[in-house]
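User: Please fill in residues for this 366-position structure.
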């Protein structure tokens, strides 16, 4: 039996009637740009994150871009971030004319290693951008402490971590801004691109909000040069339906993770580490193996979905060549990039399918 890495059709089947009705409602009221559903979703995601305000934008990438911009990041500045993430985390820094400064990761969580941040901070450093990778928050206490001491902004890349917690506090509520993605494969995924910035500060909210409409306030009076980056009302309507299920879906991912953890105990497979401080939402279940290429060949043969997140750390990306990093600068990221592979963990995965994945992984990794 083939098992896909993700199957969005199954999720749609469980909420088809409500989703279809929500989309039709928007088609009828025709408030396609920043309609009432966008505001409702902003309020609900802000509440879920434990902050005051939400700003719906066109993608998770734009959420990061506008948040960094609103935090004052520009040409000549440096932004410290993880060396091991989806490309957007680094790309947005360069797009603002600033320099991304890459930091190696912790070997167990794959998140930015807080111990390595301080010596990367210079007079030019403006912000720290931790990435909450795979659904688990970075170790935020030392990061916030350093940011306070050095007066740096913190922008959380929480694209994979909506609803996840660190010591009982939600992703997106630590820094000046938190950024979420509604890319379809995220725990709360839309029917296309979408994203949201959250913040607890009214003046930051006001600035980020005008950035998404070309910097205009009021309309046609441009305070700054902004963007056209708005969450579509249709997406918001769909996301409002799905939001009702988010906690239950993330719980199911956690149950699947527990089953995998137990099944792979005592094997050569390295399972993801959920720290005591974490409520991990498992956007991905990412294992590591020394014989990863054999493992992947076996999974492919058996029709089991899998993907490497991420095969090339930032220090080795061609577009960042001019930054002058060397592979040996980042031993932990390099090892992760060589060994990790993510396997199916979506909420609708059946027990029979999960058993199939477990058998396949064990038979190859033995
Ligand atoms: C998905 C993702 C993004 C970008 O989100 P998009 O909505 O695809 O633009 C940024 N950072 C991380 C860590 C992500 O996983």
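Assistant: Residues filled in for all 366 positions:
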């Amino acid at each position: 039996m083939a098992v896909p890495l993700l199957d969005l059709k199954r999720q749609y089947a469980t909420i088809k009637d409500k989703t279809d009705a929500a989309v039709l409602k928007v088609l009828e009221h025709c408030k396609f740009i920043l309609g009432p559903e966008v505001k409702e979703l902003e309020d609900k995601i802000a509440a879920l994150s434990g902050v005051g305000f939400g700003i719906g934008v066109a993608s998770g990438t734009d959420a990061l871009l506008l948040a960094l911009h609103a935090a004052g990041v520009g040409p000549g500045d440096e932004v410290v971030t993880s060396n091991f993430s989806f490309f957007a985390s680094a790309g947005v820094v360069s797009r603002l004319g600033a320099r991304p400064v890459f930091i190696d990761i912790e070997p167990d969580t794959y998140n930015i290693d807080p111990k390595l941040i301080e010596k990367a901070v210079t007079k030019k450093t403006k912000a720290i951008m931790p990435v909450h990778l795979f659904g688990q928050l970075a170790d935020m206490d030392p990061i916030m402490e350093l940011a306070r001491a050095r007066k740096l902004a913190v922008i959380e890349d929480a694209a994979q971590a909506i609803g996840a917690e660190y010591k009982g506090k939600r992703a997106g509520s630590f820094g000046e801004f938190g950024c979420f993605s509604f890319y379809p494969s995220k725990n709360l995924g839309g029917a296309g691109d979408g994203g949201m910035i959250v913040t607890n500060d009214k003046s930051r909210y006001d600035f980020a909000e005008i950035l998404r409409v070309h910097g205009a306030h009021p309309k046609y009076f441009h305070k700054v040069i902004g963007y056209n980056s708005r969450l579509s009302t249709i997406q918001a309507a769909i996301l409002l339906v799905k939001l009702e299920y988010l906690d239950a879906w993330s719980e199911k991912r956690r149950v699947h993770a527990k089953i995998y953890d137990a099944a792979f105990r005592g094997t050569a497979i390295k399972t993801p580490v959920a720290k005591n401080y974490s409520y991990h939402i498992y956007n991905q279940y990412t294992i590591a193996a020394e014989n990863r290429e054999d493992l992947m060949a076996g999974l492919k043969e058996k029709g089991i979905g899998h993907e490497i997140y991420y095969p090339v750390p930032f220090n080795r990306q061609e577009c960042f060549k001019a930054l002058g990093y060397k592979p040996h600068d980042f031993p932990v990221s390099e090892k992760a990039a060589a060994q990790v592979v993510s396997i199916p963990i979506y909420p609708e995965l059946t027990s029979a399918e999960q058993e199939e994945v477990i058998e396949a992984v064990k038979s190859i990794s033995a």
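For context: The pocket of pyridoxal-5'-phosphate is lined by residues 59-61, 85-86, 88-89, 131, 157, 159-160, 181, 183, 193, 195 (CB under 6 Å).
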